[in-house]
Each structure stands twice: as structure tokens, then as C-alpha cells.
RNA sequence: GGAGAGAUGACCGAGCGGCUUAAGGUGCACGCUUGGAAAGCGUGUGUACUCGAAAGGGUACCGAGGGUUCGAAUCCCUCUCUCUCCGCCA
């Protein structure tokens, strides 16, 4: 959510920034409603002050035996007018909040305009592996090695699901453990949140109202939308401190979660994205920070470095891009993507989005802090990053690590956990 | 799922139509006191909107929403949540 006071003061600048993300921007309706609302609040408050004053007067006059009939009549009228005004104020409040809630975040000053094509390469690490044999793709590899069972996964969950089995399940678990231990070592607090969340959680995250249809919704018999299944742990973690006021000394707060992530991905199936590149359920460890505004830039770089380090320690070739305004999530001011190389697709795919929301989510969820000695509260900044999602790491691992004999070499970080430095070729 | 109880400020807790500017206590902050501390005494102690350059006003908020009334924490209605007991269950 954007700051309405900022919009009032710098309408032109805000509209220009929004145009980087929206085709049509016109805030005049919003500002008209805001002006009308403030005018009404002023008049209604005056009438209420009068009412309070007279209400104190009446029992005094009665006690003194003075007549109060004219006052009572006046107050009856005053109360009726207040009621009408309050009603209109409520309607305006709702309209303003709704309109404000649908506006995306302002891109940070160093974010390039444009869509995907305008993304800026930041750096890359390693080299794409060269194969002197016929390299296989991840679907072929994980299936023949007995790591992932797509057919049985689909039998259980339908299209878009898979299951990990045997060594594949152990590999998946080892990856997640590797991530978890890395964040613990860096002093992040481990949080295992509910997976079914209330509407309010999705609103705070910036997921709702715009993207209500992207998540799996749980509906009650008559009350409609009661919960949704989290599409990322970010939607849970941002709500950790919702409606709280933190002290300056408590910042930054650093958390991480492991959860499966559930997404509808309706109509997004592409033949190229078969396997586990885009499914309805995948595993992810999410890292999160709440910081003071002046520290969020540093926190953002810290999260980027943490996520990158994980990919590096897995020995995977990757690159980092700064996303252009229209390629990043609408809630975020600035986002880096870490993309890992998938040889069979001849393409880099996102394994981590590292984002700084500035105060956009904090405003939606009223997450504030107070500086030492200050009375006024301020909104915190919120930052999130995958650290990491496994559903593209595993394909990258098996494809980049595959050997001529059909086995797959494992990086030390995983070999230690699995007690073997390679996955042997399928015996058949 | 059944039955009952409750929701008041950072916390505990009173209040049950105008004597409430939400009593009293605890905590916290500052001051007095002290060699230092404790105790004691004093003062202060929320969130938000709005007007204002500021100083400072005004308004709202006693779970949420609506109603009755000149006036509601207090009366009425609806909803939500929490707790206790019983049942079922991983």
C-alpha cells in the first residue's frame, strides 16, 4: 500500500513511477475522494465536539431545574447529521482503501523501466557444463534413476504433481536440510507456520485482492473464502509481526521457514516446462527480514548473498539479474532473480527471487517500529528471498552433474549428507 | 460436534445509561530520597484520524458491525474470537 500523504504531495512523481508498472494511471478520483473525506471528517468532528459539550451540559441544567427542551431538539438534529456524515465517510474510507490496495509498489530509483527484456544482468558464476556425450534432460534422468515418480504423483494429485521416492526423497530432504542449517548458522530464527492462512494474510502480503485466483482457496459451506493454501511462506512470515509495534532495538528481525508452496498455475502449462519446472506444489525454504528503512538496502544485499552462496555451494552455474519494473512482483520495490542453468532447456530459470518491499507490505499489515526516544511510529521495511526452492535446483543438479556413464556427481554439501558422492547409474 | 463462560489500556482488574477526563493495582520512564540499592513519595505513560508552520486544538477507539438515546464500555441485535467441560480424533 502506498502512502496517501505522499500521493497528495507528489502526485506527478507517483503517477510517473506507477506508469512503469501500469498502462493507465489516473489518481484524480482517489485524490477527490480523499479531499471530500477530509472535509467531511472536519465538519463531523466539529458537530461531535458540540454534541459532547451539550451532553455534559444537560444533566447540569436538569439538576438546576432549567429547561432543556430546545437543547434536546437541537441535539436530535445534530446527531442525525453526524450519522449521515459518518455513513458517507465510511463509504469513502472503503473506496479509498480499496483503490489504494490495488496500486502496485513504486519501483526503486535504480530499477529499469520495461519488462523482462529490460532486465539487467548483474553477474554470473561458473560455466555451463560441456558434455562430450548425449546429455539427457532432467525428466529422463530423475525418472530412470528412480528419484522422482511422475506417473504415481499424477495418479495421486492429478496433472502437475509428482512424488519423490527413495534416494530422490533423501536428496530432496538433504537439500532442504542444507538450506536450513545454513540459515541457522547465520542466526535466522526457524519458523514453521500454518499452511492454511486467512484472507488478511494474503492482503498484507500484497497477494490480495489482485491475485486471489492464483491460490487454492478453502471455502466454507456458506461463508465463502475462509482460508487459502500458502503459495509461498512469504505470505505467512510477513504476518508474523502484523499489527505490532516493534522497538528499534529489536530490528532487524530475521526469520526463515520451510514449507511446501501451492500454486494453481492455471493455464500456464508449457510443453517446455514439463517435469518439475512448474508444478502445483514444490518445496521451498524462505528467508525473511524486517528492518528499519535505512537498513533495508543492506539487508537486501545480505539476502542475495545468502541465496547465491547456496547455489554456489551446490556447484551450479547461475546468473543474477536485476528485474525491470514490469517483471518484478507488484508488491516489490526492487527484485533480484537468481537463475540457474538448465542445459536441456538451454536456459536460465529462477531459483530465487530476492526482494525488497520497502514499506509497501508493512503499511498493508500495519507493521511498525518506534525509534529510541521518539513518539511517532514508522513502518518497517520487509524483505524476502527464496533460500532456496528445490524444484529447479534438482533438475539443475542432475543435468549439470550427469556423467557419460549415466551416474550423477553430487556436490560435497550433499555428498556429506547422503554418504555418497554420486547417484549410481540405473542398473537397467 | 454438544454445553457453558468470557472478550476493558503494556499487563491484571473495577465499572453495568450522564458524578468516567475509563477507578485501583502491576509494569515502564523520569524526578525526589539514598554512600548505593530497595522501600517510599511525586510526575508521566496507548493507537489512529483531522486542523495547524509550530506550540497546541478537535475527534474516534472498552473484540467487530449495526440499533435504541439528547447522551452508550454500560441497554438491544448480529457476527468473530478465546477459554472450560463433554464427545470424536492424528
How would you explain this protein's 3D organization?
Helices cover 40% and strands 22% of the residues. The protein is an alpha+beta fold. The strands form five sheets. It has an eight-stranded mixed sheet. It has a three-stranded antiparallel sheet with strand order 5-7-6. Helix 3 runs antiparallel to helix 4.
> Mind telling me the CATH class of the largest domain?
Alpha Beta
For the biggest β-sheet, the strand order reads 1-11-12-13-16-10-9-4
Unreliable stretches: none
What about the largest sheet? 8 strands, mixed
Q: Report the end-to-end length measured between terminal Cα atoms.
A: 57 Å
Question: Mean pLDDT across all residues, rounded?
Answer: 90
Strand content: 15-25%
**Percent helix among the residues?**
25-40%
In short:
By secondary structure, the protein is α+β, with helices and mostly antiparallel strands. The chain contains 13 helices and 18 strands.
